[in-house]
Amino acid sequence: MSSVLALDIGGTKLAAALVSATGEVSAHREVPTPPSSMGADHLAATLTRLAVETAACGSPVGAAIAAAGPLDLAAGTISPVNIAAWRDFDVVSRIAKATGLPTVLIGDALAAAVAEHWLGAATGSRALLGIVVSTGIGGGLVLNGGPFPGPSGNAGHLGHVVVDPAGPPCSCGARGCVEAIASGPATLRWAHAQGWPGPGMPALAEAAKSGEEIALAAFDRAADALAAGLVATSALCDLDTVVVGGGVAAAGEVLLGPLRERYAEHATLPYTRRTRIVQARLGRHSGLIGAARHALTSL
To answer: Could you state, in order of their start, the residue ranges of all structural domains in the chain?
Structure first.
């Protein structure tokens, strides 16, 4: 059975696997994303080594890269906001050269959305936005049964929709983006600024589950920013489903509960009120599965 070498590039981890035509994942491996201070070449060497070692575990027919954005599909380059060392990084040509495989590129959040539409929480959706809430916040649209990357590959990038023009600065250069308020690091920074002493997002989620006031407020603040961005996207795209994945979304109803409540408050148009918000089902493999699906249908 045909398989694809799938790579998932994020701010905290680089992942690789072989993915079959039915979505089965094998030879999965992950390494931490090296800090940008180590330089673009070190990051590139880490990624290509991961790709070559994983490809050697089988006989893939192609390679697919899911990457944080922005990206440029025509050029095959990526400039992830949360990987400062890579600007216009020629990831497609490097992976193709290292592995000898035809290689395609897709945004990581769009890949996750494709996977959830194929095998996960959004099968049958006609207008889907998949979002990944993690180190950053990405988004991807699946419309009328197929991915909608837009001309550059960045359509649906919810994280850099401005929801508070007077809000905190964002790494993209704007102020008050969804990502600047609702990403994992942003939510944790806010909680620490209010006096919460814990070590990280998993602990913050546990504190919220226990009813700790600052932790609950932190998730509510993040949910409000996400909801504002989602309502705007639903108004533009007539969404029927939003699938929420990523490390922060692993908190479950601690995030999804207030997100649905805030969405209901912000949604004033009848057609935006029908949008359902569900948790992703495919977990950490969703980007890999969706990237492979994209390759299998496009190569």
So the answer is: 3-108+284-298, 123-280
Instruction: Give pTM, 2 decimals.
Output: 0.92
- Domain 123-280 top-level CATH class: alpha beta
Same topology, domains 3-108+284-298 and 123-280? Answer is yes
Q: What is the pLDDT of residues 73-98, one digit of tens each?
A: 999 999 998 899 999 999 999 999 99
Does 3-108+284-298 carry CATH code 2.40.30.20? Answer: no
For 1-26, what is the mean pLDDT?
93
Amino acid at 234: S
